[in-house]
Every structure is written in C-alpha cells, then in structure tokens.
Write a structure and sequence with these properties.
The protein is α/β, with parallel strands linked by helices and 294 residues long. The chain has eleven helices and twelve strands. Helices cover 43% and strands 18% of the residues. The radius of gyration is 23 Å and the shape is elongated.
Length: 294
C-alpha cells in the first residue's frame, strides 16, 4: 500500500506543480519540463550539483518520496544520501547531495522538499511526545486526522518518530463510537455485530464514563478508548480493568482527548496501554530545509 501511495502522491504533486492535472494526459517528459518556464532559462545540457541541508534539529523522514520525485522526472538525477528515515538531525547537517541535469533538479526540488519537510515535521513531533512516555509502558498512537491523500505517508512518519499506528482506515479495525452505539442499540449489541461481521478484526469501543467502560468490558471488546477522561477517571478505569484481568478478561486501554505535550506524561503514569494524539498528523509544522546548487 505504501509503495503505491508514494507513487500516486508524487505524481499528483508534480502534476499540481507543472499544471497537468488531466488524469488522461500522456505528456512526454520533455513536455513536462517545458511547463517549468523558469527552469527553461537554463540550457538543457547543463549538469549541476546541489546540497540539501536542514536548518533545525529533528527526525528525518521522506527519503522514498524524494527519490520518487526525481524518478518520475526522468531518473537522471542521482541522490547521494547521508541520512536514513528515523535519523536524528541537527542544524546545518547535510542530508543529501544531488547531481544531474540542472533543469530536473530545479523542477523537482520544491516537490521533494515539501514531502521531506512535512514528513520530517510529523516524525519530529512524534519523537517529542514519545520522549514524554519514557519510563512507562504506554505507547503513542496516531489517528485518522491526517492530511487528505497523505494518510499512509504520515502514518509512516509517525513510526519513524517512534510512535505506533492506530487503524489505517475504516477497513482494518472496528472503532465503535457514540453514534454507532446509538444506532446499534447498545455497546453489547454493537460488539456482537462486529464479531459476527468480521471475527478477525480488532474491536475497539469508545466510552465516556465508567459505566460505559463496564459495558465494554462485559461485552469483551479488545480495546476501550477512554474519551476525555480526567486523571482520576483514568486511574479508576485502570483499576476496574485490572479486576477484570484477574478473572481472565480485561482489555487494552487507550486514552484520547485533551492530550498535549504537557499532559501526556501524567496520563501515561495512570497505567493505560495507549495514548492517541491527533496533533501528530493534524498540527503539522514543517522541518526547515534548504537546497542550494553548488
């Protein structure tokens, strides 16, 4: 899925930049380059070298996307990497050296950098949250609050920062929320319906009270999301779940809502298994990069 998504995302980004958004178009490579009217100022035969550096500290991510950009622009630009996805980087560190036709480098630079700076931003923020969980068994999860068209890319970036993926989409796990419960009639009925429909898929139930948690435990769901619980309620939920575990039951507990870089550590200390944070992919601040021809 990821490999295919990289190819499609890069094509869409290049088409957006070069003004060819007709999915049925079959423009030649030379015609695509002609669309970059500024690059046309440079002789087609000119070969150039360039260096990509980071201006700030963070976690690098996006290598495959950058490579795909220049592959789709003819494959004549050689990329010599000095980092891998997941590597910590510092200000002014050399990330990559490029060599090839000057037109191709300049046509692809912004698209390649857009992917790298965005995904590195996700990975860097993820690491900040993960660091706050040090000393606990709690694991950080992402959400579906992603940039449209970049779901798998952002979720990959989360793993590069040390986080884990929640469900990828609506197809790989059940997440039974308030409206689903209301439509099904109860938590128990919703869980049973899920088991009957797809016995192989994980079933998670979102609850808003200890009473609803009890219902989800009795229904034997796999995971329970504690939505907007305060710390006192989280502690009570963990204690209740431990009592169920002592009887051979119990679930994994996930915390969601009101999670910030300042609150996540205290939430983790309650003993929950997971904390999901939409900000990882929703509040994206790009890593500052710079590319210069030599």
């Amino acid at each position: 899925m990821l490999e295919n998504d990289i190819r499609l995302a890069v094509k869409a980004a290049l088409d957006e930049d070069l003004g060819h958004q007709d999915p049925n178009s079959s423009l030649s490579l030379s015609q695509r380059f002609d669309a970059d009217i500024t690059a046309m100022l440079i002789p087609a035969e000119k070969i150039a070298q360039a260096s990509l550096i980071t201006r700030e500290e963070g976690v690098f991510c996006g290598k495959a996307w950058a490579e795909q950009v220049f592959n789709q622009l003819g494959g004549e630009v050689a990329l010599h990497w000095h980092v891998d996805d997941g590597d910590l980087v510092v200000p002014n560190q050399l990330l990559c050296e490029l060599e090839g036709p000057a037109r191709a480098i300049l046509t692809g630079e912004r698209t390649a950098m857009n992917f790298i700076q965005t995904l590195s931003g996700v990975a860097s923020l993820t690491k900040r949250y993960v660091d706050k969980l040090s000393g606990t068994h709690t694991r950080l999860l992402d959400t579906r609050k992603t940039i449209p068209g970049l779901r798998t890319a952002q979720k990959y970036a989360v793993t590069c920062g040390g986080g884990q993926n929640h469900r990828i989409g609506l197809f790989d796990a059940f997440l039974i929320k308030e409206n689903h419960i209301m439509a099904c009639g109860s938590i128990d009925k919703a869980v049973k319906a899920a088991r009957k429909l797809h016995a192989d898929k994980p079933v998670e139930v979102e609850v808003e009270s200890i009473d609803e948690l009890t219902q989800a435990l009795d229904a034997q769901s796999d995971i329970v999301m504690l939505d907007n619980f305060d710390v006192t309620m989280m502690l009570e939920a963990v204690e209740l779940n431990n009592r169920y575990k002592a009887k051979g039951l119990g679930v994994k507990l996930e915390v969601s809502g009101d999670v910030t870089i300042d609150t996540i550590s205290n939430f983790a200390k309650t003993g929950v298994d997971y904390i999901s944070v939409g900000a990882l992919t929703k509040h994206v601040r790009a890593l500052d990069l710079s590319l210069r021809l030599k």
